[in-house]
Amino acid sequence: MSGLSEFLEPIAAWFRSLGIPEPVVHWGHPAMMGIVVVAMGSAVGITGWRSRLATDFTIANQSRNAHPKIAGWMFLFMALGFTGGVLSLVMQQQPIFESPHFWTGLLVLSLLAFNGVIALAGFGGNKSLRTVHAFLGSIALLLMLLHAGLGLKLGLSI
After folding, report:
1. Is the dihedral of CA 59, 65, 68, 74 positive or negative?
2. Which helix (H) or strand (E) holds 66?
3. Is residue 132 within 8 Å of residue 118, measured between CB atoms?
4. What whole-number distance in Å separates Cα of residue 155 and Cα of residue 158?
5. 36: Cβ–Cβ under 8 A, 6 or more apart, which residues?
6. Rg of the chain's alpha carbons, rounded to an integer?
7. Long-range contacts of 144-150, Cβ-Cβ distance < 8 Å, separation of 24 or more
8. Which residues, in sequence order, are CB contacts of 89 under 8 Å at separation 6+?
9. Quick check: 84 and 61 in contact, CB under 8 A?
10. What predicted TM-score, i.e. pTM, was given to this entire model?
11. What pLDDT digit, counting tens, does each position of 89-140 carry?
């Protein structure tokens, strides 16, 4: 058992004591995160690109206002979901760091955090950083698809 698993074991044991049905422990994380990725990820990507590409000023401005709000909430839900996924592995007494699903999740969160920092810094007043932000966000969204595939593979193997 890894140090992280040992650290989280008391929390996992408490959740196990609640008698949560095994299918919920096993498939709850993928179901909830699937909703977040599909619904919020799509909305974030669409509003982000629409704010850059729309020729109608009103539509572009609405998207520019909505994008950071949805992206912030998506990041929060994904960070909480990441935590829940790790806890789910501990509850099922599975190794954490051996899973490519864990590593792609960590990479997605890291990319999104870095992208958020770029945006919160006002893109450094640099138009090219705004372009980096757009493509980095798109890469993170595409990486979420790989992450989902690895998660399905993991879920079916446990």
Report:
1. negative
2. helix 57-91
3. yes
4. 6
5. 74, 77, 78, 81
6. 18
7. 144/37, 144/41, 144/108, 146/104, 147/101, 147/104, 147/105, 147/108, 148/30, 148/34, 148/37, 150/99, 150/100, 150/101, 150/104
8. 5, 95, 96, 99, 102
9. no
10. 0.89
11. 999 999 999 989 999 999 999 999 999 999 999 888 888 999 999 999 999 9
Token pair of 10 as six digits:
């008391």
107-112: list long-range contacts, CB under 8 Å, 24+ apart. 107/143, 108/78, 108/140, 108/143, 108/144, 108/147, 109/75, 109/78, 109/79, 109/82, 111/136, 111/137, 111/139, 111/140, 111/143, 112/71, 112/74, 112/75, 112/78, 112/137, 112/140
As a residue count, the chain comes to 158
Output the six-digit token pair for 59.
């539509």
